[in-house]
Structures are given as structure tokens and as C-alpha cells.
TrEMBL record:
Residues 37-150 form the Core-binding (CB) domain. SUPFAM superfamilies: DNA breaking-rejoining enzymes. The keyword Membrane does not apply. This is Site-specific integrase. It comes from Streptomyces erythrochromogenes. Keywords: DNA recombination, DNA-binding. Residues 195-375 form the Tyr recombinase domain. Gene3D superfamilies: 1.10.150.130, Intergrase catalytic core. It holds the Pfam family Phage_integrase. InterPro entries: CB (IPR044068), DNA_brk_join_enz (IPR011010), Integrase-like_cat_sf (IPR013762), Integrase_catalytic (IPR002104), Integrase_recombinase_N (IPR010998), Tyrosine_recombinase_XerCD (IPR050090).
Amino acid sequence: MDLRHELMEGRAELPRVGAVVPARGIHPPYIVVNGYDDEIEPVTAYLRDLALNDSSPLTVRSYGYGLLRWFRLLWLLGVVWEKATEAEIAVLTGWLRSAANPQRQRKSAGAAAPGSVNLRTGKPVLRAGYAPRTINHALSVVSGFYEFHAHQGNGPVTNPVPDSPQRRRALAHRSPLEPKPVLGRARLRQKVADRPPRSIPDHLWDELFERMGCERDRALLEFYVSSGARAEELLGVGIGDLDWAGQKIYLISKGTRERQPVPASPQAFVRLARYLDEIGTPPADEPLWRTRRGADRPMTYWAMRRIIQRANEALGTNWTLHDLRHTAANRMANGGKLTLPEVQAVLRHANIQTTSRYLAVRVEEIFDKLTEHYNAPRVERSYPTGYNADDIAAVFGA
């Protein structure tokens, strides 16, 4: 079996050479270097274009890692980037479909099997390899790279990543309020299952809340589940972003990167006041949420993620930080007090169809109704007296 087939079958690994490193400037904020720490100029040109088009630094960084993976494959195959064809794209797709994702490795002995379903939450455990969305994102990154260089007059004449012109034309001028047409996927694109958002049922939420070991963590969960803020958005809030009288917090929204007000529950502010009584008021230019061990420093996303992981290990669940946002959205959308446009405003969704997904009914939420349905006695047929039994059987098949 040659090297290409070994890669497509997941029997060979890409070389761990090169890196994505911060740049000295801001256009781009990150660059990609090879194994000799030399900057890859074609990648830098593309990442600079992304930055100039107002892409966030995290987007530029993500695209940098996608292109680093692509160049590692080309280096292994001995193909220069200008000569790449769809054959190399097929090798990349096959490797992503079959290779193990190092971010999904389970180190603990009692970890759930990849792809299994947690019976307490109903959520599937992430599989060992790369997700279909990750594969499609990798193809989009490489496609954008070659599309940019084709516009600049560099690289191959034809983009090596297969495209679907029919799909692109159909979606080009579609209104967000129109239903999305069902069209065929481009070659090598993966099928992505459309799963409804997963919220935490009330009894499991109470268990999770009880596992929080300090006032800081309880305050964070109250803010997450009442405001619907994303994980990193809330962790960046400072003392000057609190509106105590208006029961609002101001945070930098992920999509627009603008400072926006978000309402939160009175109980969340009570918990926050208790937390601030414990640690004191942090500096005005520092985030509210601080670490509890070691030197005083802002709390990171990974620290908050680890808090949820420890609670999951104790409870036998597999909740994530983003499930807290789904829980807030589900409570607002189905509580009967807010209209769907009002929920959209709180969650800061650009499209109301995204908000409407939280109106979907899940089997777990209708368990009591299903139990009542299954236990209901069968309806017995009865006929008025005076009719001959043979006539009833002939007419009704009884």
C-alpha cells in the first residue's frame, strides 16, 4: 500500500513540523512557519487578507492551523502548493475521516467509549476522529486559500477543492426568512446531522449547581443560565460592565465584537455580590472572575471548562459550557413569557430561524406525557343494544 492509501486509511500520520505563531504586527495577528521556523509567505498573504477583511484574530488563528495541516500533507507527499490537485484534497479528506483526533483522546480509565450515548443526559460522547463539521471547515479553509491566490493570479488555474456551482447559485441571493433549499453536497463534503440544541433538565440542573464548590462558580452558573452569554463573553466582564440597578451586564459579543447589554436574573447579581464580598473589588481594567489558587490572575475558559468536567465526573454526565447557553435559550423560548423576537434580542442571534430551533420538542421533555399515554386503558368498542351480533360483524368487522 503506497503512502497516499496509508494516509487515507489512517495508517500514517502527518509530520508534526511547523507551527502557528503570533506575528509581530496585527495584519495578520498570526503566521505559519515551517519546520525551519521560516515564514510561509503564501499563507501569510492569505491570513493578512482575512485580517484586513475584519475577521477576528481567533478566526485567523483557526485558518492558520487548517493551512498548516494542509502544508504538512503537501510536504509529506512532496507536492508544492501551486501543483496541488483534487487528488491531494481527497487524501486530506480520507485522512481526516480515518485518523484519530489528538484532542479527543481519553486518558482516564473509566472514560466513556467514543461515540456512545450518555444515558443521563441523552448526549452522544464525541467520537475518536474528526467531526464532519471539522472536515468541511478544513476544506473551506483550503478552498478560500486557493480562491484568494487565483484572484491574485497565483497558484493553479482551477481550485483543487471541489465546488457545487448549483448550490452556490441557489444560496447566493436567498433571504434568511426563506426555507433553505435541499441541494446536493459538493464532492468530498461530509454529511452533517442537524441535531436540536441540548438543554439541561431542571432536576439535572439542580444536581450540577450543587456540585459547584464556591460562590464564584455558583455565580457564574447563575449568569450563564439567566443571560445566555457565551462562555468567553462572560469571563471577560469587568467591574465597569455591571449595571446593578438595571440588572444588566455589558459584554463584547462574539459575532459583532461590539459592547452590548445583556440582562441577567436578580439571583445572579445576589450571587455575584456574595462573591465580591469574599475577594474584594478587582481593578477596573481587570475581569471580575479570578482564579482561587496560585497568583491572582483572570479566570480562563479552560479553567471554567475544567470546573464543568469535574462536576461531570462526579455526576456521570457530559454537559458542556455551551449547554448552559442552550438551557437559557430553551427556558426563555418555552417559558411563555417572552416572544421569539425578544428571545432573539437577548441571545443576540442575527437570524430568528436560529432562535426558533429552541422551540423544538425533545423526547426527554415529554416523558411524563408519554408515560400517561402508554398507561391509558384501551378503548373498548360498544354498540347500542338491540342490534344483531351478525349484522354488527358484517358492517364493522367485529
